[in-house]
Specification:
Blueprint lengths: L1 E6 L18 E2 L2 E2 H10 L6 E6 L4 H9 L7 E6 L4 H15 L7 E6 L7 H14 L1 E7 L23 E10 H13 L10 H7 L5 E4 L10 H15 L1
Parallel strand pairs: 1-4, 1-6, 4-5, 7-9
Antiparallel strand pairs: 2-3, 6-8, 7-8
Length: about 240
Amino acid sequence: MIYAGILAAGIGARMHRQDMPKQFLHLGEKPIIINTLEQFLINPYVDKIIIVVPESWKIFTEDLIDKYDNMGKSITVIAGGENKTVSVQMIVRHIENTWGIDDSDILLAHDGVRPFVTQRIINENIEIAKEYGAVSTVMTTNDTIFVSADKNTISEIPSKSNMFAAQTPQTFKLKTLRSVFEQAITQGICLSAETELARLCIRLGTAIRLVQGEYFNMKIINPYDLEVANALLRERET
């Protein structure tokens, strides 16, 4: 079974909107989260979709999804956690408690505010996760990265050729991911303090392969990003 986990539990403080989390703002004629969701609805390999949202927006999300065609796919909305790592753990628990987990099960964890993910990226994530167990979508960076240990002076300038910007999906065999969370609990690692799931996996000995992303697979975080995304959408539509 191939599951897509859409991560939309944040409140989007950097969008500076008090009335609504950013994932529910409109991109073109549809909310951002619906634009994102549709990329997984049209994918022939994705069987079920679980969306994590803030508890207080769960009913709103269910009503929103009812307005759009689910293309025959199962969509479940659950409340998310303090960060993406905890939200993914909650998705894994929901899957295990509802359907069980077997050797072939795969989970794609994708940001709800990355609506321009392509079918090529989704498909490559699935293929490589099946073979290697864990994969992350990345992009090469055009910028030189400075590291500052004291936040005042440069302490290191890593080679640009070794630097990659993280995107999503991040995709895992569900048994691999469940094992990571079980190890973390056993070792007393606080998941609410671990904001990067990939870092947790590496820390616990799970190697992560890379899938090449796209520059336009952008994450909509602030008002400027939303303007750029709307411009990109208009360009595609024309």
